[in-house]
Amino acid sequence: MTRKFFGTDGIRGTANTEPMTPETALKVAMAVGECFHNGTHKHLVVIGKDTRLSGYMLEPALTAGFITMGMDVVLVGPLPTPAIAMLTRSLRADIGVVISASHNPYADNGIKLFGRDGYKLSDELETTIEQVLGKGPGRRAQPGELGRARRLDDAGGRYIEFVKQSFPRGLRLDGMRVVVDCAHGAAYKVAPTVFWELGAEVFSIGVAPDGLNINRDCGALAPGQMRQEVLARRADIGIALDGDADRLIVCDERGEILDGDQLMALIAIHLARGERLDGNALVATVMSNLGLERCLSGKGIELHRTAVGDRYVIEKMRSLGCNLGGEQSGHIILSDYATTGDGLIAALQVLAAIVETGKRASEVCRLFDPVPQLLRNVSASATESRSSRARCSRRSPRARLGSARHRRAAGDPQIRNRAGHSPDGARRGPGAVGKRRRRHLRGDPGGDGPYRVGRAG
What we know:
seven-stranded mixed β-sheet; five-stranded mixed β-sheet; 15 helices; 19 strands; about 35% helix; globular
């Protein structure tokens, strides 16, 4: 069945345009309520959001839909996506809902769903929800069985404590100067507090959301401002989150930008030294740099690759029994602590590695030289056939550049072509790929780093 609503990360689109309208949000909630109705107990739903203006439109629509189906709703307001996954488990809720379009601009919004175990829903369950959406729910609650809604005022504090539990006991961040860019997004209150409570001197930017400025020239997609602040403040490290704080990009004290591949290498090797890397392996996607694979191989660590999307990384992690996985874009999953990508938990593991070594971030965080990589978006028709995409693949310069990957997310009018240059079998030289990579490492917002990959997530 071709899916109309769900893409690689829930339902996403332009606010107040289908499918991101209050009418459709109401129907989605009712369909989800129908699919998750299980037994006679009072069902519970946790709803969180980021700081987009359209959240005020979608939140009450979703709430009304769940209440119509007889489900109670707990509203937690702006909080990171991983916080909703955690609260869904903590409150023994049946469903967790995040109203967010992650790293997209303010005009977009989305609906992400988590099961009672805190994991994103499977493709099969999302397909079932779409089927119910098409025909409408088979039941509604009787007047006396309607749900109720309430706010959870201490949700932020609960999440702060949850995140801090991932930092090794006995360690503190005393003496560290940390720049935190919250992208005017969901973590604008909780992220600075986490680092401050652990002893760091915190310099916060991107903490003044107005509903329209989320991810605008800031955060993990545009770390240039964070880099400048690190250099101006003479900070030890910079941490940039995206709008829903499920990914991060780091900057060392010299101003060098470190993407998810570098951070995953650091965390994997750090865990392996302590014999805490389950399966002695890391799960990443086909977009991760060849340099990461070579770096890990040199340390005896295996790299498993999946399709693009953190949900596929998590599925592979669970099937292989791994506790670390992620994406080049900065989604990093540490399953010992969380069920989805968590930028704050990942940042604390990076900081723990730095503190334990007693070295500077520049001496610890950059473990390999990336193979030059070019990522390009190519416009595609929404009705493009599989055969045309295959023809695109056959035209890829795989032999010359070393490797090529093609990705198209559901609902995305672009195909993303990623080519990696292998110095073992191709000419070196100051070509376009090398120039783009150097701009990326400087933190130039116009560079083609992994945080400049377009709108779909």
